[in-house]
Specification:
alpha/beta, Rossmann fold, Dimethylsulfoxide Reductase, domain 2, Barwin-like endoglucanases, 3 domains, seven-stranded mixed beta sheet, six-stranded mixed beta sheet, 23 helices, 32% helix, 17% strand, binds ligand MGD, binds molybdenum atom
C-alpha cells in the first residue's frame, strides 16, 4: 500500500504489487485511523505503589524503574529471572534487536514470542522434512495456476482477503479448489469440494488420502526414490488407514476422500497448503507431517507449479521467526545449541561465544512459569497481548499478576499493558523504517511516512536506551550504545552479517535491492548473486539433499468430550477483527462490523439446548467460561461450537481453551477442547 499525508491526516492508497495486486483487507484500509487515535499512548505510564494505578511518567522515570527492577531481580535470582516476549508483527530489525538484547543485554535464556502460537507446528514439520522452514517455498502467484489446490484449516477469504484473487484466478483457469474445515466458511463456499471433518482429525484424513493414492497407484515412485528418504515406514503406517476408518473418525464420507485423493493424485500442478486449523493442535507437527508425506509421495515439492506450503499469519510472521526471538534460535534461522552458529553470531556481536545463554523454553511454558518459585520474576513484552491471546488465558493472567515486574511496550493500553508496572508508548508501522518478510519468504521494505508523535519512541530506541542504562558503568554504557543502535538501517546491516551462512541468509539483501526488485527472496547470500523465489528445485536443505518422510499416526485430542463437557469447541478469526483486537477493536468501522464475540452453533444443537439466535450463552470448559450471544448457522457441524478469539473480558474465548501443547513445537491446542454450552 501507499500512504499519503495531507491536511486531512494520513490515508491509505492501493499500490500495484505482484503479491496482492493492490488489494488490501479492511484492516489495511482503516489502519491509518490508529495513528492519531485518541486512545493512543503518548507518554510512559508507571504504576503508583501507593494507589496501585498507572500514572503518566517521564521516560527517565519509567526506564529507571525498569532498570532498577531488572537489576534487583537479577542480583537476587540470576539473569534468567528476567524474560522477554516478542511478536511476529515486529519488523526484522526489531525481532533481531530483541533477541540480541535478551541474550547479551539481559544475559537471559528466556525469550520466546507469539509465533509459537502461530506457525510453530508447520515450522517444525517443514524443518524435519525439508531441512528449512519458509512458509511458501514458491511465489504466491503459483496458486492461480494450480490444477488442484487443497486448503487444510485455512479461511483466507476472512484472514487473507488479498490472497482470494489467486483462488478466483485458479478456478477461472479451470482449477479445482478443495477446502477442509469443520465450518462452511466464506472460503469453503468458493470451493468445488468441502470436507467438513471433526476438529482434530486432519491427520486421519491425510493418512487416508495417502492410503488411497497408494492403492490407486498415484504415488510418484521415481520422485520418491530419487528425492526422498524414509518412504517405506510411511507406506506401512498408512496401510492401516482405510478410508472407512478415517470416515469413522473424521466424519468425512469415503466418497469425498476418494474424490480428493483423485484430484491430488491425477492433477498436473497440485498445491497443498495448511494453516492454523490443522496446525494449532497438540498433534500439530504430526498433522502437518501427514500432509507433507502426502505431498512428497505425490512428488509435489520442488516440481514446477506444485508443492506444499504453510499460510503464514502475522504481518512479519515469516521474518519474525528467523532472527532470534525464538527460544532456541539465533539470527539467520540458526540453532542456539549449535557451536558453529554460536561462534558466528557471537563474533558479529563482539562477545565470547560461551557468554551466550543456552536455549529457553517455548512460549506457553514460559508464560506459565512466570512468578512461580522457579520461573522468571520479570517480563518485558514487545508486540503481543497474551491476556487475550494465550490459551487458558485466566491462568496466564494470574501468572502475569504474580510477577515482580511487568513491562509492556505498546501503542495502546492493551489488556496486558493494563496489568503492567511500566508501559512504554511505542511507534506504529507508519512511523518507522524497517523490513518485513512475507509468507513467500520475500523481504519487503516498510517505510516511515512521518516521525512518531511527541513522547513516543520506537521499539529500537527503547531497546537501545534500556541496554545503555543496564550497563554497570559509563564505559560500558558507551559500549552498549554502540552495540544497540536505534537506527533500523544500521540494525539491518548487522542482521545481514549475523544471518550470513545461515538457512535464512540475508547477506545479499540491501534496502536498495529490495526497492529495485519489489522485494528479495531469501536465501540471498551475495549482493551480486540471485535470490531464491523457488526452493527445492534440485535438492532439499537436508545434509544429503533428500526430503524426509515421517510416519505419523492419528491420536485423539488432548481433551475428549464427555457427559459433563459434551461438545467440541474450536476458535478462529473473523474478517473485521485482528488478533487480540488491541488495534481493531478501536477502529469505529471495524467495531461496527464485528462489535462483540459470538458463539456459532448449529440450529439443531441450539434447538436441543433451547437457545435462539442472539440469546446470550455461556461456554464452559474445565478451565473457565466465557459468554457471548448465540449465532445460529447451519454451516457448522452440530457437534462443534466455534467462537472468535479477538475479544477480552466476559467474551474471551481463551478463558476456556486447552493449554495442552505439541511435544515438538510447543503449539497450544487452540483448535479443540471439550465444552458445555447453556443459555446464560
Ligand atoms: N481478519 C483477520 N485476519 C487475520 C488475522 C486476524 O486475527 N484477523 N490473523 C492473522 C494471523 S496471525 C494468522 S495466524 C492467520 C490465520 O489464518 P487462518 O488459519 O485462515 O485462520 P483461523 O480462523 O485461525 O483458522 C482457519 C480455519 O480453521 C478452521 N478449523 C478449526 N478447527 C479445525 C480443525 O481441527 N481442522 C481444520 N481443518 N480446520 C479447523 C476454522 O473453522 C477456521 O475457519 O490469519 C491472519 N489474518
Ligand atoms: N483461541 C485462539 N487463540 C489464539 C489463536 C487462535 O486461533 N485461537 N491464534 C494465535 C495466533 S496465530 C497468534 S499470531 C496470536 C496473536 O495474538 P497476540 O500475540 O496477542 O498478537 P496481537 O494481538 O497482534 O498483539 C500485538 C500487540 O502488540 C501491539 N503492537 C502492534 N505493533 C507493535 C509494535 O510494532 N511494537 C510493539 N511494541 N507493540 C506493537 C498491538 O497494539 C497489540 O497490543 O494469538 C494466538 N491465540
Ligand atoms: Mo498467527
Amino acid at each position: 500500500m501507499v500512504l499519503r499525508e495531507d491536511d486531512a491526516g494520513v490515508s491509505v492508497h492501493p499500490r500495484q504489487f505482484p503479491t496482492n495486486r493492490g488489494g488490501l483487507c479492511q484492516k489495511g484500509w482503516t489502519a491509518a485511523e490508529l495513528l492519531d487515535h485518541p486512545e493512543r499512548l503518548t507518554t510512559p505510564l508507571v504504576r503508583d505503589p501507593a494507589t496501585g494505578t498507572l500514572r503518566p511518567a517521564s521516560w527517565d522515570a519509567a526506564l529507571d524503574r525498569v532498570v532498577t527492577g531488572i537489576r534487583a531481580i537479577q542480583n537476587d535470582a540470576g539473569p534468567d529471572a528476567v524474560a522477554v516476549f516478542g511478536g511476529g508483527g515486529l519488523t526484522n530489525e526489531k525481532a533481531y534487536a530483541l533477541g540480541k538484547f535478551a541474550r547479551i543485554g539481559l544475559r537471559t535464556r528466556h525469550i520466546d514470542y507469539n509465533g509459537r502460537f502461530c506457525m510453530s507446528s508447520a515450522a517444525a514439520a517443514g524443518m524435519r522434512a525439508f531441512g528449512i522452514d519458509r512458509g511458501l517455498p514458491f511465489p504466491l502467484a503459483d496458486l492461480g495456476r494450480a490444477d488442484t489446490l487443497l486448503l487444510v484449516g485455512a479461511n483466507p477469504a476472512e484472514t487473507m482477503p488479498p490472497l482470494v484473487r489467486w483462488l478466483t484466478e485458479q478456478r477461472a483457469n479451470g482449477g479445482q479448489l478443495i477446502v477442509v474445515d469443520p465450518r462452511v466458511t466464506a472460503t469453503a463456499r468458493q470451493a468445488d469440494l468441502h470436507l467438513q471433518p471433526l476438529p482434530g482429525t486432519d491427520l486421519a484424513v491425510a493418512n487416508a488420502l495417502l492410503h488411497i493414492a497408494l492403492t490407486e497407484g498415484w504415488v510418484d515412485r521415481e520422485y520418491v526414490a530419487e528425492r526422498t528418504a524414509g518412504f517405506e515406514a510411511v507406506r506401512r503406517s498408512v496401510a492401516a488407514w482405510w478410508p472407512a476408518r478415517a470416515e469413522q473418525i473424521s466424519g468425512v464420507p469415503v466418497a469425498d476422500l476418494e474424490a480428493t485423493a483423485r484430484a491430488l493424485g491425477t492433477g498436473g500442478r497440485v498445491i497443498i497448503l495448511t494453516a492454523r486449523g490443522a496446525e494449532q493442535h497438540a498433534k500439530g507437527v504430526d498433522t502437518v507431517s501427514a500432509y507433507v508425506n502426502l505431498a512428497l509421495a505425490l512428488g509435489l515439492p520442488g516440481r514446477a507449479g506444485s508443492g506444499y506450503g504453510c499460510l503464514t499469519g502475522q504481518g512479519n510472521g515469516q521474518g519474525g521467526r528467523e532472527h532470534g526471538q525464538k527460544a532456541d534460535q539465533l539470527p539467520g534461522y540458526r540453532r542456539i545449541d549449535d557451536p558453529a552458529a554460536r561462534e558466528h553470531v557471537a563474533g558479529v556481536w563482539g562477545v565470547p561465544a560461551d557468554e551466550l545463554p543456552g536455549p529457553g523454553v517455548p512460549a506457553y511454558q514460559l508464560l506459565d512459569s512466570l512468578g512461580t518459585p522457579d520461573g522468571p520474576r520479570a517480563l518485558l513484552v514487545f508486540g503481543s497481548n497474551p491476556v487475550v491471546s494465550a490459551p487458558r488465558a485466566g491462568r496466564i493472567e494470574r501468572r502475569l499478576r504474580d510477577l515482580d515486574l511487568l513491562v509492556v511496550a505498546d501503542l495502546m493500553l492493551s489488556e496486558t499493558a493494563a496489568l503492567a508496572d511500566v508501559v512504554l508508548p511505542t511507534a506504529q508501522w507508519a512511523e518507522e523504517d524497517g523490513t518485513m518478510t512475507n509468507l513467500e519468504g520475500r523481504v519487503l521494505r516498510r517505510r516511515a511516512l512521518r516521525p512518531p508523535p511527541p513522547g513516543v519512541r520506537t521499539d529500537l530506541a527503547i531497546i537501545a536506551d534500556l541496554a545503555a542504562r543496564l550497563a554497570p558503568d559509563a564505559a560500558a554504557a558507551t559500549d552498549a550504545a554502540a552495540r544497540f543502535p536505534a537506527d533500523p538501517a544500521t540494525v539491518f546491516a548487522e542482521l545481514r552479517r549475523a544471518s550470513a551462512g545461515g538457512a535464512a541468509d540475508y547477506a545479499g539483501i540491501s534496502w536498495a535491492r529490495i526497492d529495485a526488485a519489489d522485494g528479495v527472496y531469501w536465501p540471498c547470500p551475495t549482493e551480486e548473486g540471485s535470490d531464491t523465489p523457488r526452493l527445492f528445485t534440485d535438492r532439499f536443505a537436508t545434509p544429503d539433499g533428500r526430503a524426509r518422510f515421517h510416519p505419523v499416526d492419528h491420536r485423539p485430542a488432548a481433551e475428549e468430550v464427555c457427559a459433563a463437557y459434551p461438545l467440541h469447541f474450536t476458535t478462529g478469526r473473523v474478517l473485521a477483527q485482528y488478533q487480540s483486537g488491541t488495534q481493531t477493536r478501536r477502529v469505529a468501522a471495524l467495531r461496527r462490523a464485528a462489535a462483540e464475540a459470538f458463539v456459532e452453533l448449529h440450529p439443531d444443537l441450539a434447538g436441543r439446548l433451547g437457545i435462539d439466535d442472539g440469546d446470550p450463552v455461556r461456554v464452559t470448559s474445565r478451565r473457565g467460561e466465557f459468554s457471548a450471544p448465540a449465532r445460529l448457522s447451519a454451516g457448522i457441524r452440530p457437534d462443534t461450537v466455534f467462537a472468535p478469539f479477538h475479544y477480552a473480558g466476559a467474551g474471551r474465548a481463551n478463558s476456556v481453551t486447552n493449554d495442552a501443547v505439541d511435544p515438538i513445537s510447543g503449539m497450544p491446542e487452540f483448535k479443540i477442547c471439550a465444552v458445555r454450552v447453556e443459555k446464560a
